[in-house]
Amino acid sequence: MLDEYRDRELSPAEASSVREHLKDCAECTEALAGREYLAGVITEAAQIRPSEEFVQRVSLLIEETGKGYRQPLQWPMPAMALALAASAFIMVGLFSSTPNEISQPGLISTTFEYEQGGPMPVMERDGVIDNHDQVLGSLLEES
Amino acid sequence: MATDIAESRLIELARGGDGDAFGHLVRRYEADVRRLATGFLGDTSEAEDAGQEVFMKAFKNLGKFRGDSAFSTWIHQITVNHCKDMLRARKRRSWLPWNSREDDQVPDSESLSTSPDEATHEIEARVLLGELLKGLSPDYRAVLLLRESSGLSYMEIAQTLGISQDAVKARLRRARQTALEARRHLKASEGV
Predict the structure, then answer these.
(1) CB pairs under 8 A between A and B
(2) Partners of A48 in the beta sheet?
(3) Same domain, yes or no, for A38 and A85?
(4) Closest partner CB to B63 (pick from A39, A46, A71)
(5) Which chain A residues are closer than 8 Å to B101 by Cβ?
(6) What span, in angstroms and rounded, lies between the C-alpha atoms of A11 and B36?
(7) CA atoms within 13 A on the CB side of B104
């Protein structure tokens, strides 16, 4: 109750009751004085005067880091959007009939053996022939 | 109420990239943030750096501030979390003890002290505070400083730290008891 009394968190009736008690209790009065002392030390240790220099330094730092305010992305799932864009890109690539591109390891390539009526297009990744669904699944996983 | 309306307008403008509007917010909370950081870290230079970083974080994340709580609560949250991170990093570095950094011995020109005696008194108070708070975890230190340094109510402290008011009361009681116990030990050792 003493802490709440000191911090003015009691109702008027409760505060009055504590005040009455303090009149006759040296121990509680000393405990309250201790709390006042601690508050005084905390106040004394950090007497800060507002500083326009500080404000200017903050402004400068913000400018220097180049972090002009940007609206956060509104898309709930930006990763999914990226995956869809990648998928669209792949689909365009698949149907733009570009045969026999040689891939480097690690890159997705479109190596077609597609001819009209021929086998379905396949994709090569890391030297492994894969089907389109598996490669798209990998893309989604990575994103 | 007029102040609240003005602040929400400042926030709205700052979100749109208005540096002047954000500057007004910095001016409004600068002293409080630096006082809180000083209490946590015990060093005015570190506290000033912390203060700058707090406001940079606030600026970068203004878009995430939805106004569910008061802006002051949000700024206090950022300050407390940042200071806790700094204390953890300091502990990892095992640097100089909390109250023996050289910077602490240099009067802070931006403090309220106007005379060398007052400045010395302030430094002594910081050193003493360091001793009193040495045994407190960052969580207990946060409650005590939000109450005594920032003058927050129990409800405001609870909102800032995301704990119940009962937890605030319990931690505050414990923090004060621990600090006062440290004071008793100091007085006893001085008497030896």
Answers:
(1) 123
(2) B111
(3) no
(4) A71
(5) none
(6) 28
(7) 22
Residue type, B138: P
pLDDT digits (tens, 9 = 90+) for B80-138: 999 999 988 887 765 555 544 444 444 444 455 556 777 777 788 888 888 888 889 99
Do A83 and A132 share a domain, yes or no? yes
Å from B129 to nearest chain A CA? 6
User: Is A53 within the bounds of a domain?
Assistant: no
DSSP helix/strand/coil, B111:
strand
Chain A closest-CA separation from residue B94 CA (Å): 23
Q: Which two tokens stand for residue B39?
A: 């209490």
| Distance in angstroms (rounded) separating the CA atoms of residues A81 and A136 | 13
In total, how many domains does chain A have? 2
Contact A48, B110 (CB under 8 A): yes
Q: Which domains does chain B have, with CATH numbers?
A: 2-191 (1.10.1740.10)
Q: A90 is in which domain, residue-wise?
A: 78-142
Q: What was the pLDDT predicted at B96?
A: 53
The predicted model scores a pTM of: 0.69
